[in-house]
Amino acid sequence: MSTNSIQLAHGGGGLEMNKLIRNLFFKAFDNCILRNEEDAALLNLQGPTAFTTDSFTVSPLFFAGGDIGKLAIAGTVNDLAMMGAEPQYLSLGVIIEEGFPMASLETIVASMASELKKCGAKIVCGDTKVVPKGCADGLFLNTTGVGRIVKPGLSAKHLVPGDAILVSGDIGRHGAAILMAREGLELESGLVSDCATLWGAVEQLLVHPFDIHAMRDATRGGLSAVLNEWAAASDVMIEVDEAAVPVSDEVKGLCELYGFEATDLANEGTFVMALPAGQAEGALEVLKRFGHCENAAIIGRVGESPAGRVILHTPWGSNRYLDLPAGELLPRIC
Amino acid sequence: MPNQAINEPDSSLKLKSLYEGFRDAGTIRALADRISSAAINLSEPLYIMEVCGGHTHTIMKYGLLGLIPDNVKFIHGPGCPVCVMPKERIDQAIALAKMDDVILLTLGDMIRVPGSKGSLAQARASGADVRPLYDPLDALAIARDNPDKTVVFFAIGFETSTPMTAVLLQQAEHAALPNLLFHINHVLVPPAIDAVMAEPATKVNAFIGPAHVSVISGAKIYRRAAEVHHTPVVVSGFEPVDVMESILRLVELKNHAESVVEVQYSRAVTEEGNLTAQALVDEYFEVRDSFRWRGLGPIPQSALKLKDKYAHRDAEIHFGGRLPVAEIDDHKACQCGDILRGLANPMDCKVFGRGCTPQTPLGSCMVSSEGACNAYYRYHGVQHVD
């Protein structure tokens, strides 16, 4: 049997599966709870806890700035962090297509282990399935996480007029990097996904007495989706200064080529935050000085009317709605 | 700037050069002031048709309407390749996609536009093999990887995208790929302009000429329209500075009663256009006698088809009697036809934003990201905000 690629036997519950789990997953994610090998992880949770799950089906599996493994850890850890929770325990579900290269799986697992170290969370239980060739696109991952809530009360419903809106970095890089990798575009180098664990930056914010009302990582749907969801959930108007929104030259150029808007492109390591305007400069300084968010910026503010809408102010004095992106992101035709 | 970037040693495209300088706030404001000053002298309102949906989106996305005086108005034209596709052609694509052992390929938004019984996206959801492409040349690899299937490229678009289809066809021939066929729906801008101007009720008295179409075909293709219809034409780029500068030129030309063709987008457009691309198109395509446009009806000599020499690549011939041919009009409540003819504004349509939204479109102008209704739905209607 080839050990260079995953075989159906690796999911069969026998010797091969045992070897795969012990030699790869246990080695990479080693901790005492996982090592117990019980039917379920026994945890000691105290106080309010955040609980989230996410599945990852990205294509291609490797892209500039990350891979599906890094994404699977960062995605779930970030969902916890956005609720003001310190990520603690994660589960990992792995669905592998028969024939998947063992070396790629090893690289992805190493990438997950490396990302876990950045936030201190542990993978404490998991599941591996191997499906026949053609039944999955290489590799699917699911991560579920729990975290201790450090800052309660964060909610998409808690924005109020007078809040400032901040972003933690330049937007659209993950969506653009995936597009480049998927379509084999040979454009100027330097465009990498922002894929990263946000807990470090959030932890720095939470040690300060900021009255943060909401945080959200701007994943699928990008900045537009977050702001529209917030405006609807809190029944407020959000206005954004287009010139203040940080966008890299590479992302701007790619949007030009394909007719996309950077505000619609996905991010995997950039979050949006709302807090009272008077605290915005302080929070910005913390993000920049201690959170490694050099491109963080105050991009807008919360108002009252028209409730539920997001308005973009152009640098030349006109206004337009920033609407939710709809459907698949498809390039313009001409 | 783009040439400079291409000549650099690593040949990588410097993306920044695509937009740098063309969104300068000071320039846009200055152009707005100059347009307002010049428009005072207009003897009648200027009704500018931007033929191309890309310009419609520039105008809406960058909020340019708010910078233009009241006597300069926009009429949105039929230059969105997705919007003008009649339902029966989409029905044909769906019929092809649903056939056993057929893979249907197309570009962008085309998969979202409804035919008479749903869209290609819905056909895909029910099991048909429909794949949107970013690059038509990807069709070669798909055909090569699926030798037991017939791969059909549902080719759409104006003069801009026709050369890409021609290159694909050329490479399919060179590679002797027997299983790659073409369903050709390429349409032409000048006959559409004539159709708009033939409408007795039209108010259009100036044109913003398409950008990408003109890169291929050259500004020469509008010369006849300017002369026959007595309208100035300014071929414009897609950036806000481009469009504002083009509007200013149209106002000035109108003030001087000059019905000429000018090229604002001179960094990419010449009078003659891309002769190599034109020759390639001529090698593979010829003009159809007539093509039915969504909303505009049949327009003579307004579309292309494969030459007889390439009939072995023609899906319409290959699948002949198996494709539906019944002509199907839009929903009665939908005013896409009037909008595409320049007789109505998206906001005039009774179902705009109610029965017809980008998620539940009745008409093609709402579904396409280049459609006028889609642009209005997404960006328009912002009132004064303090």
Provide keyphrases for this structure.
heterodimer; A: alpha+beta; four-stranded mixed sheet; 9 helices; 31% helix; globular; B: alpha/beta; five-stranded parallel sheet; 16 helices
What is the topology?
The complex is a heterodimer of chains A (334) and B (386).
Chain A: H1 15-28, H2 32-35, E1 49-56, E2 62-63, E3 66-67, H3 68-81, E4 85-97, H4 102-119, E5 122-131, E6 139-149, E7 163-167, H5 173-183, H6 199-206, E8 214-217, H7 222-234, E9 237-241, H8 249-258, E10 271-276, H9 280-290, E11 297-303, E12 310-313, E13 319-321
Parallel strand pairs in A: 4-5, 9-12
Antiparallel strand pairs in A: 1-6, 2-3, 4-6, 7-10, 7-11, 8-10, 9-11, 12-13
Chain B: H1 2-6, H2 25-39, E1 46-52, H3 53-61, E2 72-79, H4 87-98, E3 102-107, H5 120-125, E4 130-133, H6 138-145, E5 150-157, H7 162-174, E6 180-186, H8 189-197, E7 206-209, H9 212-217, H10 223-229, E8 233-235, H11 240-255, E9 261-263, H12 275-284, E10 285-287, E11 290-293, E12 297-300, E13 304-306, H13 315-318, H14 336-340, H15 364-367, H16 372-379
Parallel strand pairs in B: 1-2, 1-7, 3-4, 3-5, 5-6, 7-8, 8-9
Antiparallel strand pairs in B: 10-13, 11-12
Describe this structure in words.
The complex is a heterodimer of chains A (334) and B (386). Chain A is of the alpha+beta class and 334 residues long. Chain A contains nine helices and 13 strands. Chain A has helices spanning 15-28, 32-35, 68-81, 102-119, 173-183, 199-206, 222-234, 249-258, 280-290; strands spanning 49-56, 62-63, 66-67, 85-97, 122-131, 139-149, 163-167, 214-217, 237-241, 271-276, 297-303, 310-313, 319-321. Chain A has a seven-stranded mixed beta sheet with strand order 8-10-7-11-9-12-13. In chain A, helix 3 runs parallel beside helix 4. The mean pLDDT of chain A is 92. With 386 residues, chain B is α/β, with parallel strands linked by helices. In chain B, the strands form four sheets. A five-stranded parallel beta sheet of chain B has the order 2-1-7-8-9. In chain B, strand 8, helix 11 (240-255) and strand 9 form a beta-alpha-beta unit. In chain B, helix 2 packs parallel to helix 11, helix 3 packs parallel to helix 16 and helix 7 packs across helix 12. Chain B is globular and about 65 Å long. The two termini of chain B are 38 Å apart. At the A-B interface, helix 8 and strand 13 of A face helix 2, helix 3 and helix 16 of B.
